Amino acid sequence: MKQLLSLYGCVLMLFVLTGCGDRVDKMIYFYTDQNNNTYTISSSEVRYDPITPKESSSGVYSGGEKAVIPITQKTFRKIVQLAETLQQDTLSHIDRREMRTAILLAESNGKDISRVILLPSEKRSALEKLLEELVD
């Protein structure tokens, strides 16, 4: 399975780098950070759905305000590159959700392509930083 995901990542990166955007443009990524704030990323926008105090385990934490941010193809390709790197980095994957982990799901034409649970890492931080900059 890990080899299949690596092969998939390589093929997807080939489409991104060669400009074969049709297939990449149909990709949607769902990223849930360690606080359960959710980002839905398509080729045209990032939708941010923050957790509310009522939904948080502490009853106090708020992820802020909902947002829909238009993005350029260049930004989408950067997100795709970071997401694919995370999907291929099997050392940062675990089998079940624990504290401080995040979830990255890739979907194409309404079907799950991959789903990984991610431990904290520099690569994950890079994706989170980009997403946070977009919604701030």
What are the key terms here?
4 helices, 7 strands, 7-stranded antiparallel sheet, 136 residues, single chain, globular, alpha+beta
What is the straight-line distance between the termini?
A: 37 Å
Shape: globular
The oligomeric state of the chains shown is single chain
Any idea what the radius of gyration is? 15 Å
Walk me through the structure.
The chain has 136 residues and is α+β, with helices and mostly antiparallel strands. It is 38% helix and 26% strand. It contains four helices and seven strands; from the N terminus they run ααββββαβββα. Strands 4-3-2-1-6-7-5 form a seven-stranded antiparallel beta sheet. Helix 1 runs antiparallel to helix 3 and helix 3 packs antiparallel against helix 4. The N terminus is likely disordered.
Short summary:
It contains four helices and seven strands; from the N terminus they run H-H-E-E-E-E-H-E-E-E-H. The protein has helices spanning 2-18, 21-25, 73-88, 122-135, and strands spanning 27-32, 38-41, 45-49, 67-70, 93-94, 102-108, 111-118.
What is the topology?
Blueprint: H1 2-18, H2 21-25, E1 27-32, E2 38-41, E3 45-49, E4 67-70, H3 73-88, E5 93-94, E6 102-108, E7 111-118, H4 122-135
Antiparallel strand pairs: 1-2, 1-6, 2-3, 3-4, 5-7, 6-7
